[in-house]
Amino acid sequence: MNKIYCPLNYTMKLIGTKWKPLVLFHLLEGPVRSGKLQNKVPHISNKMFTQTVRELEKDNLITRKVYPVVPPKVEYELTEKGKSLESILKSLDSWGKEMSAFS
Amino acid sequence: MNKIYCPLNYTMKLIGTKWKPLVLFHLLEGPVRSGKLQNKVPHISNKMFTQTVRELEKDNLITRKVYPVVPPKVEYELTEKGKSLESILKSLDSWGKEMSAFS
DNA sequence: ACAATAAGTTACCTAAATGTGATATAGGTA
DNA sequence: TACCTATATCACATTTAGGTAACTTATTGT
To answer: Which UniProt keywords apply (chains A, B) (predicted)?
Structure first.
């Protein structure tokens, strides 16, 4: 008892992984091509990148737009739901910047 | 090329796990005894609770205060660094609340 | 003697996350 | 014909996270 329902659980389920916040963060500026987005995220593997955007798409945080050309062209873009994370993502980033300034 | 250094990485290393944000969130009100804190976090196991607070302590986000009594009494409390996460934690929580309101 | 207590540890196990390397695609170009 | 391109998938291995149950500790109250 005295247990508290905490919506934070829901949030962590959606974006509580190593890569998701990074990918979302780099989409804040607008739509980005797949390869370029992947390049913006240091050290992410091919597989994890794909897996991450797939899940973000499933959870309606980003959209995936495929152009039927060869070689393929794919763009990812934040949905409204994704955009609503903007201030949180920026806060997390600037908190990290402040904190890593020490040590 | 075009890779961007992102302090978000640092942030995610410190608090990017299933339980850490939850534990920190429940410390926002002030110091809490170990058992009581654990009870506030639904479904956390004994082991994960201990492991989580150990890591938070190591990263200087919380302090652990042991009273030399029997049976043991231990209190956890946010450090200044931990307190600086307050607005982020609350934002994550209220974002979760808004979003889980749909679906 | 022995049970109760609060906080934690230990050994052992399963599940989830992440990484690596090879392969697929299909049209344009050398 | 063979290769290049951007995007993605597959099989497999490894690493990390998380769970369960038993055990420890030292004192007080029975």
So the answer is: DNA-binding, Transcription, Transcription regulation
